[in-house]
Write a sequence for this structure.
């Protein structure tokens, strides 16, 4: 099978190949041939936990001449013959493949390498190519790839993703459709097995505690803001309601809680709408006034000698006003009303005052 891993410098391509290709192959007992620079073979052996069969080849010429396959035809049948330098059931990992099969130098793919790309699966041979730019490599590497993995380091986005990388899997690097997509976290132990372009120190020092605490704090702040503003700005609503009530004075310095709601005693001031307009309710005497919802009804008024007399019944209380000033209050269960001096403003009394006087009843 042919697989291609590509991405920017320091994106984690070699890291992904290590844990996804090389380590599983070594654990399965397969032979691995690679040109990855400065592999830590003793540490890799300890990580696998058993003897491993891995060979490092740094010669570009060896790779160009060895990765070939010939097709022999004796006139009866044709068969593919693997290069003697290659091993059956082996994994070949080629890092920086654009240096070996440069598209600018290989105008025509050599038949031996092309045959290997087409017949390698019959020998159990897997070819893994690592490159920064697939367009720099021979086009047949991308065209005949069975799987392609685009590796992206997510550290440039934010500190929360500094230890993570994304993998986009396609059949070929030039396919627009993504077969699978997943993200993984860097393991600092893997970086001890080889030399990597990823910032290893940042991966080792980055902890999970900071991101967890910050995430929890952000979620808590969002919940608090949601509860506060779900009431539709309660501070403004309470102030507007108080302004619309007549006969009630509000104190801008009155205490409110963190939701902008005043204490219960202050909220009762809304019942003061039944008080007379001549009376005032200040913040100092709000708590000492006992408010009752007693309906008042004007039962008549008199105009005499330039004065306006009004009589109102509030339950069992008869109140007499002269020019809108309270002059007399009498409790009379029988319902009699007394004017100034204790006299009742009856029809007979009104008729003897002045011809211009009038009596009106509601």
């Amino acid at each position: 099978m042919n697989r291609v891993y590509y991405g920017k410098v320091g994106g984690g391509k070699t890291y992904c190949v290590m844990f996804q290709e090389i380590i599983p192959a070594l654990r399965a007992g397969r032979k691995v041939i690679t040109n990855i620079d400065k592999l830590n073979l003793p540490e890799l052996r300890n990580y696998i936990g058993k003897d491993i069969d891995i060979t490092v080849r740094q010669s570009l010429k060896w790779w160009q001449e060895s990765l070939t396959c010939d097709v022999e035809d004796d006139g009866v049948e044709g068969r593919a013959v693997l290069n003697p330098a290659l091993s059956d059931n082996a994994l070949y990992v080629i890092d920086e493949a654009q240096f070996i099969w440069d598209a600018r130098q290989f105008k025509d793919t050599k038949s031996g390498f092309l045959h290997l790309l087409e017949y390698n699966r019959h020998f159990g041979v897997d070819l893994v190519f690592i490159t920064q730019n697939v367009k720099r490599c021979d086009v047949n590497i991308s065209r005949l790839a069975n799987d392609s993995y685009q590796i992206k380091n997510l550290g440039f986005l934010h500190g929360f993703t500094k230890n993570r990388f994304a993998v986009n899997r396609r059949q070929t690097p030039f396919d627009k459709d993504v077969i699978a997509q997943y993200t993984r976290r860097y393991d600092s132990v893997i970086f001890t097995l080889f030399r990597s372009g990823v910032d290893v120190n940042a991966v080792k020092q980055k902890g999970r505690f900071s991101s967890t605490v910050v995430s929890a704090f952000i979620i808590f702040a969002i919940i608090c803001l949601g509860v506060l503003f779900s009431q539709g700005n309660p501070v403004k609503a309470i102030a507007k309601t108080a302004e619309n009530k007549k006969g009630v004075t509000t104190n801008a310095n009155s205490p409110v809680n963190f939701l902008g709601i005043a204490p219960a005693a202050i909220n009762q001031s809304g019942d003061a709408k039944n008080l007379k307009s001549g009376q005032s309710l200040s913040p100092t005497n709000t708590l000492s006034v006992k408010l009752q919802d007693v309906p008042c009804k004007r039962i008549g008024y008199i105009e005499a000698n330039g004065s306006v007399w009004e009589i109102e019944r509030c339950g069992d209380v008869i109140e007499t006003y002269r020019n809108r000033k309270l002059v007399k209050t009498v409790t009379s269960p029988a319902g009699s009303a007394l004017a100034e001096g204790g006299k009742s403003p009856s029809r007979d009394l009104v008729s003897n005052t002045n011809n211009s006087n009038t009596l009106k009843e509601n």
About this structure: The longest strand covers residues 296-304. Residues 2-204 form a domain with the Rossmann fold fold (CATH 3.40.50.300). DSSP finds ten helices and 15 strands in the chain. The mean pLDDT is 75.
